[in-house]
Amino acid sequence: MPTNPQYMQRALQLAKNGLGITAPNPMVGAVIVYGDTIIGEGFTSSYGGPHAEVNAINAVADKTYLAKSTLYVTLEPCSHFGKTPPCADLIIKHKIPNVVIGVLDPHDKVMGQGVARLKSAGCNVTVGVLEDACIEHHKRFLTFHRKHRPYIILKWAETSDGFIAPLATKRGVKPQPFWISNSYSKQLVHKWRSEERAILVGTKTVLADNPQLNVRTWFGRSPIRVIIDRKLKIQGDYHVLDHNAKTIVITEIKKGPKWMKNIDYEVINFTKNVPQQICDLLYKHNITSVLIEGGGRTLQSFLSDNLWDEARIFVGPNSFGEGIKGPSFEGTKLSTKKIGSDFLNLYKND
After folding, report:
1. What start-end ranges are recorded for coiled-coil regions in this protein (predicted)?
2. CA-to-CA distance for 275 and 281, rounded, in angstroms?
3. DSSP symbols for 252-303
């Protein structure tokens, strides 16, 4: 079956509209082509809503064209009932004869069954068109189902001499952030927060900075807050306990608070494999991606255990001379971007 990669490229472009709203579902894009004309296109709705294939089919004004069309979709159509019926069944119902898929779905309820169902109904199915681009696009979903952990993005800001925070004596009495990056970089971080399912920080970061860990200077959904608080030292009016966003507190105290509005307490063993236990816990909570913002010890623990996928590092123009040094790691540098007075370095884990 002849295929045209430009239609898959369009499907990928559409799929990006689902970033930050579809999780834990994948952000899929779909395009329906009749002859050389796109007659329908769609992307996955917010979680619980119609999938990309459904939206694309619904966008076709004259459904009689479907029986002579080709569907391009970035991820294998689902074959199971979830919050919505199987997309494979809808494709078969409308007798779409040709289906082009970017990458197979590793979900244990799909894993090639969507393709098998389509083929058994007589559809011509092609898999692997722009596969690398589709894998990159679906990296959160694929990592979650292949590695049984969230896609992990590490983020921090450091000074030109490599410090992520000043000495405690340089801070004020009241807990508040000590900014290294500029306002443009801070806005970009809020955009990133809107794109990921959860955000994670350690105890010292909360006690020193009292962060809100939400989305304020961008549009979008605030992430689930995940707080490592081994001894339950965070008490009182800290923002992370304000009940305004779903929050998971990870502790070793078994007799801690059992229930608070919007706050779950989870117990792990802090004497071994803490990053892996946290990954297992986030997987249990169906969290497909997490942005880890600090502090240094927390970031270094994930780096040292090789549990990370991306690192996004801001470098500001100022210097401290002394303080808390930034994490050390090895990774492949993808790019450097200038953001006002800051530089943003992007790395991936090989």
Report:
1. none
2. 10
3. S-TTS---BTTEEEEE--TTS-HHHHHHHHHHHTT--EEEEEE-HHHHHHHH
What is the arithmetic mean of pLDDT over 189-195?
A: 98
Residue 188 structure tokens: 């970009």
d(CA 202, CA 109): 35
Residues marked active site are found at: 53
Query: What are the tens digits of pLDDT across the range 233-266?
Result: 998 899 999 999 999 999 999 876 666 788 999 9
Give the span between the Cα atoms of 68 and 129, in whole angstroms: 20
Q: Where is 300: in which H helix or E strand?
A: helix 296-304
DSSP 3-state assignment of 72?
strand
**Hey, what are 321's tokens?**
């001379």
Q: Is residue 327 reached through a cis peptide bond, with omega within 30 degrees of 0 on the bond before it?
A: no
CA atoms within 13 A on the CB side of 170: 12
Q: Check residues 48 and 299 and name the one with the higher pLDDT.
A: 299
What residue type is assigned to position 117 of the chain? R
CB 260 within 8 A of CB 229: no
The DSSP element (H or E) to which 346 belongs, if any, is: strand 342-348
Q: Alpha-carbon torsion 267, 269, 273, 274, what sign?
A: positive
Q: How far apart are CA 348 and CA 164, in angstroms?
A: 20
The predicted model scores a pTM of 0.94
HSE-up (13 A, CA, CB side) for residue 346: 6
Matching residue, tokens 């806005």: 187
* Residue 272, Cβ density class (10 Å: 0-12 exposed, 13-18 middle, ≥19 buried): exposed
How far apart are alpha carbons 94 and 59 in whole angstroms?
A: 13
Exposed/middle/buried for 38, CB within 10 Å: 0-12, 13-18, 19+? middle
**Cis preceding linkage at 112, omega within 30:** no
CA dist list (Å): 84 to 30, 53, 152, 212, 228: 17, 12, 28, 34, 35
